[in-house]
Automatic annotation (TrEMBL):
One Gene Ontology cellular component annotation held by this UniProt entry: cytoplasm
Alphabetized InterPro entries for the sequence: hSac2, Inositol_phosphatase, TPRG1-like
Superkingdom, natural source: Eukaryota
Region spans: Disordered: 1-37
Segments forming domain HSac2: 70-243
Protein name (record): HSac2 domain-containing protein
Similarity annotation: Belongs to the TPRG1 family.
Pfam family of the protein (one): hSac2
Organism: Leptobrachium leishanense
Length: 278
């Protein structure tokens, strides 16, 4: 019996020692728990100090570009087909090339247009890209064009709005009397025997549309076509021939307040404005 009591006593002592070891608090010498690596987006306490990171979309990081309707491929080719259906085979002939340019009026206002070089005429079309219809269409026979001036745009010193770049002035019917004072002061005058063209301010992303915006190449094609027209179809009773000048192209605007407003708002160009298109 004494031996059995000693064995039970030793077992109870061992059980008590093991229980004390399991209940002892961990010390600094104990093995530390493995720490998870910090996430690049989340902090150690995401519920307490986490703030969502704003990611700028890629479309907003690019340089903003004005979205002109005339540089939408489907619209411009639809406009060309519409204008081509109105050409006269007897007066115009076949369409040779189309150009996207800007006209500068005698008031200094700007307006985009489509210039079409045909076999015998220069067609100038002010196309409505919102209503998808031709608002104004002018025909200038090649053998009527007598003077082409190429050079930098020039404005009076008092002009508020001055545009840089090259200009092309196309004149016809040089025997006509100079425009009257009423025509000069009328911003919608249509009896002026000239037109001033310059490069479109937009920059299309398509290569074929970029080629249509080259003003100098348009000038070379126009001079060549006019020269051939004077040889093949001269006007009786006139001294036929084309005069090509290299000098500044004068824009005859005095103060140009209307031109300044027109240029800042780009009212002469069809584009989306404040969720509207005009």
């Amino acid at each position: 019996m004494d031996t059995k009591r000693q064995i039970v006593t030793k077992e109870s002592q061992c059980f008590t020692m093991e229980r004390e070891q399991t209940t002892q608090p961990e010390t600094s010498s104990d093995k530390e728990k493995p720490q998870l690596e910090a996430h690049p987006m989340y902090t150690q306490g995401p519920r307490e100090t986490f703030t969502p990171e704003y990611i700028i979309p890629e479309t907003q990081t690019r340089t903003p570009r004005e979205d002109f309707f005339i540089f939408r491929r489907s619209l411009v080719y639809q406009a060309i087909q519409d204008i081509q259906s109105r050409l006269s085979p007897e007066e115009d002939g076949n369409l040779q090339s189309t150009w996207i340019l800007t006209q500068i009026s005698h008031w200094g206002t700007e307006c985009e247009l489509l210039a079409l070089l045909c076999d015998r005429t220069l067609m100038l079309c002010y196309y409505d890209f919102v209503g998808l219809c031709s608002s104004r269409l002018f025909r200038v026979p090649f053998n009527y064009i007598d003077t082409v001036t190429w050079g930098p745009l020039s404005y009076p010193q008092t002009a508020l709005n001055k545009r840089d770049g090259q200009g092309l002035k196309v004149q016809w019917d040089k025997l006509r009397e100079p425009p009257s004072l009423l025509s000069r002061w009328n911003p919608w005058a249509k009896d002026l025997p000239y037109i001033i063209l310059t490069k479109h301010p937009g920059s299309p992303g398509q290569s074929d549309l970029e080629d249509m915006c080259k003003l100098e190449e348009f000038k070379e094609r126009l001079v060549e076509a006019v020269g051939l027209a004077h040889q093949d179809n001269p006007i009786p009773g006139r001294a036929n021939g084309l005069l090509t000048l290299q000098k500044p192209v004068n824009v005859e605007t005095s103060v140009g307040l209307v031109s300044l407003v027109n240029s800042k708002t780009q009212l002469g160009y069809a584009k989306p404005r404040w969720n509207f298109g005009f």
